[in-house]
Design a protein that fits this description.
This protein is mainly alpha-helical. The protein is built from eight helices and no strands. The protein folds into two domains: about 50 residues, no CATH class; about 110 residues, no CATH class. The two termini are about 40 Å apart.
């Protein structure tokens, strides 16, 4: 398995400064670009893949677990209890969205579509509000991650459970954010 932290000269940590990572990535790509330096011995596509992986907190944590705690990786767990209410709200909003899309698809005339404008506006407003809440929740979890990172590398085993919880929450939040964003784009 490729250690993308090592490949990109980054410390194995839960948190990496996004701007510093980006700046370092640009320096690496300039130094190892095949058009400029064809025989550097480093696969340019691996640098890009590593950057894509490390810049995303969810995939970075997964990679960190693969490298540092490989025995702890397990099958997906259920929704964290503190996200159940959000899940129910999101499920309801996405059901409303799916119902609206079905109605819009069945609308044969401009008048029939116009009659759905109020419902479309309400569903869009609901999705936008949920999107804002998800961004706030994600920012809160990323703040927890940065705070936990301050104790790294300290007693890594003591950080295992909190890191796993953060990784699990991020996984759900980012998935839901993508679903809501896609629904908003379809209605906009």
């Amino acid at each position: 398995m490729t250690d993308y932290f090592a490949l990109l000269d980054q410390p194995r940590r839960p948190w990496l400064d996004p701007e510093a990572l980006k700046e370092h990535f640009h320096k690496l790509t300039a130094a190892h670009h095949p058009d400029l330096s064809p025989d550097t011995g480093i696969d340019f596509s691996s640098i890009t893949a590593g950057y894509q992986l490390l810049r995303n907190p969810k995939t970075r944590l997964r990679h960190l677990f693969e490298l540092e705690f490989p025995d702890t990786l397990s099958e997906a767990k259920g929704i964290p209890s503190d996200l159940v209410d959000s899940f129910m709200q999101i499920a309801s909003a996405l059901a409303s969205f799916a119902n609206l899309v079905k109605k819009l698809g069945s609308a044969q005339s401009p008048l029939a579509k116009a009659l759905l404008a109020t419902e479309q506006s309400a569903v869009l407003s609901q999705l936008l509000a949920i999107s804002e809440n998800l961004v706030r929740e994600e920012n809160s979890i990323l703040a927890e991650l940065r705070q936990l990172d301050a104790s790294w590398p300290g007693e890594k085993s003591a950080l295992l459970d909190p890191l796993a919880q953060i990784a699990q929450k991020l996984s759900f939040l980012l998935k839901w954010s993508d679903q809501i964003r896609e629904a908003i784009l379809r209605l906009s």
